[in-house]
Design brief:
Number of domains: 2
Distance between the termini: 28 Å
Structural class: alpha/beta
Number of helices: 10
Shape: elongated
Length: 258
């Protein structure tokens, strides 16, 4: 478990990610403000596929009529990393789909030319873009970068609607073992995706929010938690702000001892 510690006291927060200064610094500052400690534990470990394996997708990627669909930041990062390593030059006119709005903004960091009309996204869930794909883009072939863990809802949609698609394996994901005996030591666990909810609950099936509270980001994450019978003390979604900090601040202020 990777520990970032700030004036440690009994109360601790667990974030189920690898620590990234760019992403998580606001949480560290929040912890300092409320005299908490923060632990970072990645539910999964990721590694890119071999360059030789990715090279097989070159023809598909360079076919202009094909659309590229991204469903996570990891998919975006590994795709462009491998494209650069294999010297695949992607056209500035390439059409992209992103499952949710924050990914659209993240994708722009990788593009030389930012053309808003060339990036189409859902709002809070990938299912938001399914009707548009079915109505307007059903004749296209969709390429979607992914890990070895199947994105079955996407595959089912393409199959059911007879839309051409191809998975591009960009990285491999392995699941890390959660230190179950320490979970009750945390005042709060933060979840940012349905996948985190599912992975966490598989390893700790008897987890209850009666002792350790949870905070959620994203509509689909909240739905996944509710299906488990978990009640969140903080939940929210801001399309252009991927942070729970603003919501956690007043909660911690009211809940922690002075």
């Amino acid at each position: 478990m990777s520990l970032i510690e700030n004036n440690p006291r009994e109360e601790k927060i667990l974030i189920l990610h690898n620590y990234s200064k760019h992403i998580h610094e606001p949480y560290i500052e929040l912890a300092k403000k409320h005299r908490l400690s923060v632990d970072f534990f990645p539910l999964t470990s990721k590694s890119p596929v071999a360059i030789s394996d990715f090279r097989q997708y070159k023809r598909d990627i360079l076919t202009k009529r094909n659309v590229i669909l991204f469903t996570s930041k990891a998919n975006i990062d590994y795709f462009f990393q491998l494209a650069q390593a294999t010297k695949i030059v992607i056209s500035d006119d390439q059409l992209y789909f992103c499952s949710i709005e924050p990914l659209k903004h993240y994708l722009k960091k990788h593009l030389n030319v930012v053309r808003y009309r060339k990036i189409i996204s859902g709002n809070t869930n990938i299912k938001d873009i399914f009707p548009k794909i079915k109505k307007i883009y059903s004749t296209k072939k969709f390429l979607f970068p992914s890990s070895n863990i199947k994105q079955q809802s996407i595959i089912d949609f393409f199959k059911q609607n007879k839309i051409s698609y191809k998975e591009l394996l960009t990285h491999k994901t392995t699941i890390n073992t959660i230190p179950k005996e320490t979970i009750n030591d945390y005042k709060l666990v933060l979840f940012f995706s349905p996948y985190e909810i599912q992975t966490f609950s598989r390893q700790i099936p008897k987890f209850s929010t009666s002792n350790t509270k949870i905070a959620l980001f994203g509509k689909s994450t909240k739905i996944a938690a509710e299906k488990k019978g978990w009640e969140a003390v903080v939940s929210g979604y801001h399309p252009k702000n991927s942070s729970l900090v603003d919501l956690l601040d007043p909660y911690l202020k009211n809940q922690l001892p002075k």
